[in-house]
Design brief:
alpha/beta; Chitobiase, domain 2; TIM Barrel; 8-stranded parallel beta barrel; 6-stranded mixed sheet; 16 helices; about 30% helix
């Protein structure tokens, strides 16, 4: 257990019945046994219940959001909750504790902030039932909001051509691993990232979407649809290129804010979503908006004017439907990579060629510079090509005051959310992960911040979520928001605590069995690849060896060693107490989940994997592949499941 004040004992009780009806009770009925003696009862939490819990714990507890308390005795289980969703949190925690019986004792949990969100793409239609298990994992981890990016992956009854063209569009990028990333770098300005993982290149029907929504509503999880528009609008513009801001842009992603036809279509798409989702708010995107002023009408206005008018127009339509407007807020912050004036330098070295349609485009790397940085760079590189983006942040003073902002620039400077507060805006931290975050409790207490949302920008299958650090963020964010002992200064401790929790969760069935535990590590590091935005895992690229396991009965088995899946580098910097500037590289954590990531006293890392078997091992030998760039050390021992 990582998220509670707790005092649990060795003595255990079995549960025979659960009083009440509802999903929380159904979760707990899964741990009941016919011969049990205890009964689970749910009650609203009271001051008297808190006092009783504190007396049993021998310590005071901290107040917070969605709190719950559980007292487990020989005669029964008392569950106290503050909100409907906290009943579910308690039920899932007890289910995770139960192994035929529950430990007697007491536990208490509370969240530091009101909103704990998870942003991801829509699943493929064949993976809806699996996606529901991810929703239940979010309940175990204490989340209460799910943000779903729709793009072309949701059925738009008013414009079926969007869905038809979305499938066609995604096929372009599925033909070549990394083509989506190369396409971002194949024009005179950096194009928006391409999210072909939405629906895995397909789309959900209204009925399939309603199934997911019903599942979430029954579990008191708010679902926020995300409909990118203006920027990241490729799913609209592939079907309707006539609405592109730059008519020459290959596979355009920036829509023209002066085109009336664009708004007519966009608002019809909004209405399709509102009819099905019945949302409180919609995230309209607007992040990474770098292209303004191409058409004759747009040239007459500044970038700030265009951005302001567009937001107000979208806001007015959603308000008329009783829906709040939410957006990624980088274009409203003064930082040069956000809403300040900036130059996107296109470095001259050609990284390759990318065919779009019947034309080959050079692939270049880009980097964002402030005007001052650009002036210095241009002195030594007078022929540099750069894309200028005028400021947009000045329009924030005129934004609707009920606009909800998602601040994903929180790591740059704490003053950014103070700027939003001064303008009367409020919202949440987005793309959030706690490991580099300073002043956590103080910043979450600011009146303009209501919570956090962590993000998955890749596929939803388990291996992609592990290797893209999605699971790691989900567990780590939960640990930071629920654990009473969380110390943000101990970054590596927190990283390893999240990894330990993940291992116990994903290996919960294997840990009950008998088998072999292999402890291993590499003396080299492979460059990390971000498995998102159209880049997928090709396992053979990371296959660095195999274990040949010989058993005493004369049989054998082979276990593959896959970099980032079940092994990583031995070294870590600075040991378990290192600060933000001296911490373990992220490649250390890529194998967390399948493997237990462990650090010794010196900070050296090893990875423990479990191979269930009833057989006795005679020997294990290692064979390396040509992908192995150094040495692999390993040891093994039998383990006895509990």
């Amino acid at each position: 257990m990582n998220i509670t004040n707790q005092l649990l004992n060795e003595k255990r009780v079995t549960v025979s019945a659960v009083v009440g009806e509802g999903i929380a009770e159904d979760v707990l009925r899964a741990v009941c046994v016919p011969a049990g003696a205890a009964v689970c009862r749910f009650s609203p939490i009271t001051d008297a219940a808190i006092e009783r819990v504190e007396a049993l714990l021998g310590e005071s507890v901290e107040d917070g959001f969605d709190k719950y308390a559980v007292i487990i005795g020989e005669s029964g289980v008392e569950i106290y909750y503050s909100t409907p969703i906290s009943k579910l949190y308690a039920a899932h925690q007890l289910k995770s504790l139960a192994d035929g019986a529950l430990p007697t004792g007491v536990l208490y949990a509370r969240a530091l902030c009101e909103v704990r969100g998870y942003k991801c793409y829509l699943p493929h239609k064949s993976a809806i039932e699996y996606f529901k298990t991810q929703i239940d994992l979010c309940l175990l981890l204490g989340y209460n909001m799910l943000m779903l990016e729709l793009g072309g992956g949701f059925e738009y009854k008013s414009h079926p051509e969007i869905n038809e063209k979305w499938i066609e569009y995604c096929k372009i990028f599925k033909a070549e691993n990394g083509k989506a990333i190369n396409t971002q770098r194949s024009y005179k300005f950096p194009k928006d990232s391409i999210h072909i993982e939405v629906g895995e290149g397909d789309y959900l029907t209204e009925e399939q979407m309603l199934d997911i929504l019903s599942y979430c509503r029954a579990r008191h999880i708010e679902v926020i649809p995300e409909m990118p528009c203006r920027s990241h609008a490729d799913y609209i513009l592939y079907a309707h290129p006539e609405f592109a801001e730059d008519p020459e842009e290959p596979l355009p992603s920036f829509a023209c804010p002066s085109n009336e036809g664009y708004y007519k279509l966009l608002f019809e798409l909004f209405d399709d979503v509102i009819r099905v989702f019945e949302p409180k708010r919609i995230n309209v995107g607007h992040d990474e908006d770098y292209v303004f002023g191409f058409c004759e009408k747009c040239r007459k206005k500044t970038a700030a004017q265009l951005f302001e008018e567009d937001i107000k127009r979208v806001h007015a339509h959603l308000s008329s439907r009783g829906v709040k407007t939410m957006l990624w807020a980088d274009k409203l912050c003064s930082n040069f990579h956000g809403g300040g004036s900036a130059y996107h330098i296109r470095f001259p070295e050609v990284q390759g060629y990318n065919r779009i349609g019947d034309k080959d485009y050079e692939v270049h790397l880009f980097r964002c510079y402030s005007p001052e940085q650009f002036a210095e760079y241009k002195k030594e590189h007078p022929d540099v090509e750069a894309w200028y983006v005028d400021e947009t942040f000045s329009c924030r003073e005129r934004m609707p005051k009920d606009l909800e902002v998602i601040n994903w620039y929180y790591g740059l400077d704490e003053k950014i959310e103070d700027e939003y507060r001064e303008m009367g805006l409020h919202g949440i931290y987005g793309n959030w992960q706690p490991f580099r975050f300073r002043n956590l409790k103080q910043r979450l207490k600011k009146s303009c911040i209501h919570g956090v949302c962590t993000s998955n920008w890749g596929s939803l299958d388990p291996l992609s979520m592990q290797r893209a650090f999605t699971y790691y963020k989900l567990f780590g964010v939960s640990h930071s928001l629920w654990s009473k002992d969380y110390d943000q200064a101990k970054r590596n401790d927190n990283m390893l605590a999240a990894a330990d929790w993940m291992f116990r969760y994903f290996n919960r069935d294997t840990l009950k069995k008998k088998g072999i535990a292999i402890e291993h590590a590499c003396d080299f590091d492979m460059p990390h690849i971000s498995f998102d935005c159209g880049y997928w895992i090709e396992t053979e690229d990371f296959h660095i060896g195999d274990y040949r396991i010989a058993f005493t009965d004369g049989t054998e088995m082979t276990y593959p060693i896959i970099w980032g899946e079940n092994i990583g580098p031995r070294f870590a910097v600075g040991g378990a107490q290192s600060d933000d500037n001296n911490a373990a590289p992220m490649s250390v954590m890529e194998a967390a989940g399948i493997a237990l990531v462990h650090a010794d006293e010196k900070g050296d890392i090893s990875y423990r994997i479990l191979i269930p078997t009833e057989k006795e091992v005679a020997s294990i030998t290692l064979t390396k592949t040509e992908k192995c760039e150094g040495e692999i050390t390993f040891s093994y021992a039998p383990y006895q499941g509990k």
